[in-house]
């Protein structure tokens, strides 16, 4: 058993459970069918994704479990803010701003579809790219190589693209202005992090400049 990989999966599920309880706290401990469907799926996706990744490429999730790395200071700051907003703050805000009682409508269904779609992109990226750590750094200790497979043949940072899709999804699932503002802040952090990480890789990762000539778009095909 790969203990470090298992610990990462447990941490991921625990983070989502905490997010659920923060939502409950914000919503005064009330839940609607809409809320139950979302959080049940949200936690189930973490479990299923963890199992798939463990079987397909446990090395990736083992390395993603690292807490202390030699990543740049800007990455530590942006990652900390992102982690707090995306896993915890946004759900507490959703509970306060939206409350419970929303019906399962077509916007909710579109949001759930986008949630699943973003998960699929992330999973595929994690399976093909063993160097996909949680932090942004030049992995000289692991002899990092450029990944050009799967979604990396279309965009250079597919997991960040998946986060942007998730930001749209969560805004549709919990349609409160406070949630949309928080999701926009998360998206802004991801865009800044993408730019900084892409610049770092161009300067320090062998073969990455050539890769950027073949795959021109960082996040959104035909746009950026």
Descriptive notes:
With 224 residues, the protein is mostly helical. The chain has one domain (3-214): Four Helix Bundle (Hemerythrin (Met), subunit A) (Up-down Bundle), CATH 1.20.120. 70% of the residues lie in helices and 0% in strands. The chain is built from seven helices and no strands. It has helices at 3-26, 33-64, 73-98, 106-128, 158-173, 177-204, 208-214. The longest helix has 32 residues, at 33-64. This is Isoprenylcysteine carboxyl methyltransferase. The chain crosses the membrane at residues 12-30, 36-56, 77-98, 104-127, 163-196. GO terms for molecular function: protein C-terminal S-isoprenylcysteine carboxyl O-methyltransferase activity.
Biggest sheet character = none
Q: Over all CA atoms, what is the radius of gyration?
A: 18 Å
Order of helices and strands: HHHHHHH
At the first level of CATH, what is the class?
Mainly Alpha
Counted up, domains total: 1
Distance between termini?
41 Å
Shape annotation: globular
Oligomer: single chain
Number of strands: 0
Q: What is the CATH T-level topology?
A: Four Helix Bundle (Hemerythrin (Met), subunit A)
Structural classification: mainly alpha
Q: pLDDT under 50 segments (min length 5)?
A: none
Beta-strand proportion: under 5%
Helix content: 55-70%
Q: Count of DSSP helices? A: 7
Q: Give the name of the CATH architecture.
A: Up-down Bundle
Query: What's the overall average pLDDT, rounded?
Result: 89
Main location: membrane
Membrane topology: Multi-pass membrane protein
GO cellular component, one term: membrane
Pfam family, one: ICMT
């Amino acid at each position: 058993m790969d203990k470090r990989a298992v610990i990462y999966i447990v941490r991921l599920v625990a983070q989502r459970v905490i997010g659920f309880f923060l939502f409950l706290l914000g919503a005064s401990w009330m839940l609607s069918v809409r809320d139950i469907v979302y959080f049940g799926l949200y936690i189930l996706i973490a479990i299923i994704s963890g199992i798939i990744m463990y079987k397909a490429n446990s090395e990736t999730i083992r390395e993603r479990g690292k807490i202390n790395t030699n990543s740049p200071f800007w990455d530590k700051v942006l990652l900390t803010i992102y982690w707090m907003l995306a896993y915890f703050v946004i759900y507490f805000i959703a509970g306060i701003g939206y409350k419970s009682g929303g019906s399962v409508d077509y916007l909710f269904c579109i949001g759930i579809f986008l949630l699943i779609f973003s998960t699929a992109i992330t999973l595929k990226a994690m399976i093909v790219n063993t160097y996909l750590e949680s932090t942004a750094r030049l992995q000289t200790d692991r002899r990092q190589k450029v990944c050009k497979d799967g979604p990396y043949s279309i965009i250079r940072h597919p997991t960040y693209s998946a986060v942007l899709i998730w930001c749209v999804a969560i805004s549709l699932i919990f349609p409160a202005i406070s949630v949309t503002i928080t999701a926009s802040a998360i998206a802004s952090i991801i865009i800044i992090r993408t730019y900084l990480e892409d610049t770092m890789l161009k300067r320090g990762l062998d073969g990455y400049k050539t890769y950027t000539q073949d795959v021109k778009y960082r996040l959104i095909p035909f746009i950026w």
